[in-house]
Every structure is written in structure tokens, then in C-alpha cells.
Amino acid sequence: MSEFWLTLVNSFTAAFGEAEALTGWEAVAVLLALAYLVFAMKGSIWCWAAAFISTAIYTVLFWKVSLLMESVLNIYYMAMAVYGYWMWTRGGKEHDGVNIVSWRLSTHLKIIGITTLVALVIGHFMATQTQAAFPYLDAATTCFAVMTTYLVAKKVLENWIYWFVIDAVSIYLYVSKGLMLTAVLFVFYLGMVVFGYYMWRNKMKVQKTAQQIDLTAGTA
Fold first, then answer.
1. pTM of the model
2. Transmembrane region positions (predicted)?
3. What is the Cα–Cα distance from 53 to 114, expressed in whole angstroms?
């Protein structure tokens, strides 16, 4: 009996130690992810540096808690951080960065339809062939986040609307897997993405006004 209790105590001690290490790295990733969002709202290229480091940490964290697609997603985020930096600094026709744009509703409906179909296929594969937790939700948040990150790099205004839905679903996933700091971060995200949307929309209006002034001056 004494051996049983000793084993039980040792198991709890080991689990607590692992949780402490996980929470420490998670805290760093959370702060950097928060910095990414703040910089992105302001349109600062520093958002991509914060994103690269934060996602590198999350790649390992998600793998440890069996959110396999979330882990793969963060590898993609690392690559997109490099692409986003290039687009914001060298993209566009003049190679001086891209401006904020808005895409038509019909375009977004096509994107949603295709992404949903891909998510269902991947979710089915994960549910039947892997030990992934919440396979369909995991696949859905992953597929839509992949697509939405590309929209951020292209500075498509509606990316903030996609993020709102993705973040709301992600909160449930993270709470279920014990990533409480990340869940709290995503609660803040829900409010911040709303501000991000309006900040980008206002900047887009300013850009359009400036372009009209330039066109008028060019024809004068």
C-alpha cells in the first residue's frame, strides 16, 4: 500500500513539474502572440518577427498535448511570417509593400466553401487514422487559419472577421486541453480583432482618399 501512495505522489509531482514548464513557455508564447496582434492592428512589420518566435514555441506545445493539426498549423505560421514580412515590405506593383484591400462577398463565399470542404476531409482522416483530440474542430480551425493568415499577408480587410470566428472556436479547444493562458489570450483576441477591423477599415479609407488625390493631381 505504501508503494502505491509513493507512486501516486511521484506521479503528481512529475505532472506538476511538467505543467510548470509548459505554463512558462506558454506565457512567453502568449506575450509574443499578443505583441503580434497589436503590431498587426497598427500595420507594423514587427508583427511578423513576434509571430515567428511565438509560433515556434506553440509548435512544440501543441504537439505535446496532441493537438496535431494545431502544431502543423504553427509550422505554416512560421513560413507565413517570412512571407508576410516580404509582402508588407517588398510586395505590390511598386515593390514598396501592399495596401489594405477589401474582397467581394462572392469571393469570400467561394473561399468559405472550399475551406470547409477541405476541413471535413482532413477532419475525417484525423478522426479515423490518428489519436488527435477534437479532430473536426481542430481541422476546421487549422484550415481556416491557414487561409486567413494568407489574407493577413495580402492585407485583406475581412481577415479580422475570419479571425473572430476562429478565435471563438479555439477558446473551447484550449480550455478543453488545459491551455488556460492561451484561452485567456484568445478571449482578449475577440475584442482586439474588432478594433483591428475598424482600424484597418479607417486606414483603407485614408489610402483610397490619398490615391484619388494623387490621380487628380496627375491629371491636372
1. 0.77
2. 22-39, 46-65, 71-88, 109-127, 133-153, 181-200
3. 30
